[in-house]
Design goal:
Number of strands: 29
CATH class of one domain: Mainly Beta
Structural class: mainly beta
CATH architecture of one domain: 7 Propeller
Strand content: 35-45%
Shape: globular
Distance between the termini: 40 Å
CATH superfamily of one domain: YVTN repeat-like/Quinoprotein amine dehydrogenase
Helix content: under 10%
Largest sheet: 5 strands, antiparallel
């Protein structure tokens, strides 16, 4: 299996071509994987998740049903986890050096040094731990500093559907409201505040410790608990799901733990999405073009930088005022699915639909 992974993700150095990009903006350092040539004969969504463990190491899900950790310096595989089913969500804690992922309704946590499994749990296991009827995990995130595990359970109602486990994952520390079914969850750098995008375009930032709002946008959904859908018995009422094909919706949200909330709203095939930077103290909002219909975004609060890509093959670096700091046209592969700054902020990685992962150095 290791031989197969090595073949699938053979490292090759790609020299920067002046015809492809502005050399003063981004420099393509390395690209991994064998690109898919024919979109019609392949399943979309190959590298959905990719993250930095440290400035040298990246982890990503491979088409071979594995999670692979690679060294940027020499391109060697540090470790791999095989037999991984389709991943629904994942998160890296650099402080604890751990990776957590959700696959086939089970949660796994592995050691970032060697891929050794630290924790595994089903929804039923979690429900027993939390002493509640049922848990259907939909999103998760690890505390950046200590590896606490935050789990969000699927629900249509306004209720305490977020759970925080201690770093040993044997004790429930606290719960918080997610304002309906969440589809994007992140933590502030200090791990105290959780940012959630939920069903019906609800944006919320909550203080996990006190379960109170820091920022809220949308309409709360309140359903009679007696009639709520029960996934175990498959009974109860479920509010109708409103699905807008090719319509605008919130895609990502980040909070610095002090005063700044950054979130993105996707556009459509005919319109570009937008990025919003909100100052919670002054209530000032900066809004600017994301240069993509569907947006992939990461935020570096230390440098006040935002990296943007998505449906285009472009890569754009902006500051919190929307000023374009760097831009490269047609440098990534087709249909990007994730983007992330390195811990130092000097590099970015991009995972793409065509089963490739690219690493760029940000120009001085």
């Amino acid at each position: 299996m290791r031989t197969v992974i090595l073949w699938l993700f053979t490292l090759f150095f790609v020299a920067t071509a002046s015809s492809e990009m502005d050399a003063a903006s981004f420099k393509l350092v390395r690209r991994y994987g064998q690109p898919i040539k024919d979109r019609q004969k392949a399943t979309a969504g190959r590298i959905l998740f990719a993250s930095w463990i440290d400035d040298d190491s990246i982890v990503f899900n491979s088409d071979a049903g594995s999670i692979v950790c690679l060294s940027i310096k020499d391109g060697k595989i540090k470790w791999s986890v095989n037999g991984v089913k389709e991943i629904e969500d994942w998160s890296v804690s650099r402080g604890a050096n751990r990776l957590a992922y959700l696959a086939a309704s089970r949660i796994y946590v592995v050691d970032g040094k060697d891929g050794r499994k630290i924790f595994e749990s089903s929804g039923d296991d979690l429900a027993r731990l939390m002493r509640i009827d049922s848990v259907l995990p939909s999103c998760l995130t690890l505390s950046p500093k200590n590896g606490r595990l935050i789990i969000c359970s699927s629900s249509y109602s306004y209720g305490r559907n977020g759970y925080v486990l201690d770093p040993s994952y044997r004790k429930l520390l606290t719960t918080f409201d997610t304002d309906a079914w969440p589809h994007d969850v992140s933590l502030s750098p200090d791990g105290r505040y959780v940012s959630v995008i939920a069903y019906k375009n609800v944006l919320n930032v909550r203080d996990v410790t006190n379960n109170c709002d820091v920022f809220f946008r949308g309409s709360r959904i309140v359903v009679d608990p007696k009639t709520l859908w029960n996934p175990k018995t498959m009974t109860g009422s479920v509010p109708p799901i409103e699905i807008v094909i090719d319509g605008a919706f919130f895609s990502h949200i980040r909070y610095d733990g002090r005063k700044t909330v950054v979130y993105s709203e996707d556009g459509s095939s005919n319109a570009s999405g937008e990025v919003f930077v909100r100052d919670l103290c002054s209530k000032q909002v900066n809004k600017f073009d994301a240069h993509n219909g569907h947006i992939e975004m990461d935020v570096d609060f230390n440098t006040r930088h935002i990296i943007l890509t998505g449906t285009s093959r472009n890569l754009t670096l902006v500051d919190f005022d929307g000023r374009k700091l760097a831009h490269a046209t047609a440098v990534t592969m087709q249909r990007n699915l994730c983007v992330e700054f390195s811990p130092s902020g000097k590099y970015v990685l991009v995972g793409s639909w065509d089963n490739t992962l690219s690493v760029f150095k940000i120009g001085e």
